[in-house]
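[Discussion] Sanity-checking designs against the backbone

I'm trying to build intuition for which residues belong where. Below is a C-alpha cell string of 68 positions. I'd appreciate it if someone posts a full sequence so I can compare it with mine line by line.
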C-alpha cells in the first residue's frame, strides 16, 4: 500500500525499542502506525505537546517492563 498514511512520529517512536521480535512490532505498526494512526494513544499525546512514556502502547495500555 504505497498510498497508506503513515504516522509522522514513526521514525522517532520510542515504543519500537521495546520489541525484540519484529513480528510483534509489525502487528502494532500494521494496526496503528500505518493508516488510522490518529487513534494511537502515543500519537494523541504527542500532538498535544506531551511526551509519551516509552512503555505506553498505541492502545493506551502501559506495557509492564520487567528487569533492568
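Best answer:
Here's mine. Compare freely.
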Amino acid at each position: 500500500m504505497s498510498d497508506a498514511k503513515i504516522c509522522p512520529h514513526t521514525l522517532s517512536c520510542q515504543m519500537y525499542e521495546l520489541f525484540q521480535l519484529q513480528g510483534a512490532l509489525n502487528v502494532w505498526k500494521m494496526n496503528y502506525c500505518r493508516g488510522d494512526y490518529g487513534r494511537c494513544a502515543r500519537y494523541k499525546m504527542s500532538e498535544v505537546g506531551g511526551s509519551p512514556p516509552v512503555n505506553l502502547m498505541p492502545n493506551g495500555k502501559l506495557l509492564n517492563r520487567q528487569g533492568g
